[in-house]
Amino acid sequence: KKQPQKKSRERESHPPGRLLSFFVLISTITIISSLCMVASQFLPLFFAENHRLTALQYALRLYMLVFCVVSALNELEYTSWIRNSALLKNFISRGFIYGFLGLIGMEESSSIRFKNMNDDGEFTDLLTNVASWFMVMSSWAMVIMGVVYFAMGACCLKGVRDRKRAQYKEMLEAAKEKTKVREAVLKEEGLWESR
Questions:
Q1: Confidence category of residue 6, pLDDT binned at 50, 70, 90
Q2: Alpha carbon of 7 to those of 12, 79, 135: distances in Å?
């Protein structure tokens, strides 16, 4: 009987933090990638040759802008219609969507003729070169996050994430209750100093 009590104490002293932190890190990287993709939709307006984009390119950039904002909101679980979307709730379909957005971003960056580009496709100015690489790297980041989400979905990690998140919320609630009880006892004994 002493053995299970020891294990129970170990669980209390080591909250499920590492795995939950991994999921938060993945979500944070995805949000950053999505916001970089949003910024990438505006870069051609400043760096494209003659500032000319076709109507199709403008329409595609508008769709990309909307989908990248929705993907960032999805990671933040901001609204109920996003949280309850079957397509965005599933990690496998989420991975496909993120990967698709990244691939479209790559195609967008390769289809634009930038200012200050010589005939060999090399840039003659540093700022244009940085803008071009930013578009490419943000697209790659989105593709990578798509692959990560697809792999997590294939390994059925959504259920693991949800369980870890629920355990963490329970732990926070228990800590709040302990704090309230401690404050009440200290106030009762006259040892509580209000700050």
A1: very low
A2: 9, 39, 50
